[in-house]
Amino acid sequence: MPKKTETESQEDEGDRQRFADRVLLFLEDAVYWAIAVVLVIGSAALLVAQFNTMLHLRDAAAKTVMLEVLDGLLLIFIFVELLYAVRSCLRSHEIVAEPFLIVGILAGIKEIVVLSVEAATLLEKGPQFARAVVEIGVLGGVVLVLALAAFVLRERRRDTQDAGENASDEEDAPQAS
Fold it and tell me: What sections of the protein cross the membrane (predicted)?
């Protein structure tokens, strides 16, 4: 059997690497699809549970009903936004930070809403009320930081797209001699 040349050995190695990349890409997509299915099923289950909660709370105080409904809907929004993040990962094959920042913003807002209502019941319990107010303030700060980060990412992406469009416009323009 003739000995392989260095070029043939490099080609074989390249073929093995391409095959491994294809297999890993397929497995990565399979995991993302599984996550997407779990998120869709979870979202549907949360919607059904939300309708069930509304039916069971029809005789409860309006404040209780609104808090439970808002809490459940914000949780559904979190699931849907995570589903969007998974879809973005499947499409681009890279993790995009912005959907996860939005999930963090929604989670922070959800907790602020829940804590705000609970804080109203703790008004007479000084230390517990003060702790709830501090927690609401910290969550508010986290939401603002996450919103600022999402804004900066969006602006940077817009600037990058604009720069790419300007460069392609310059390439398409006729050259003056």
Answer: 30-49, 69-87, 99-123, 129-153
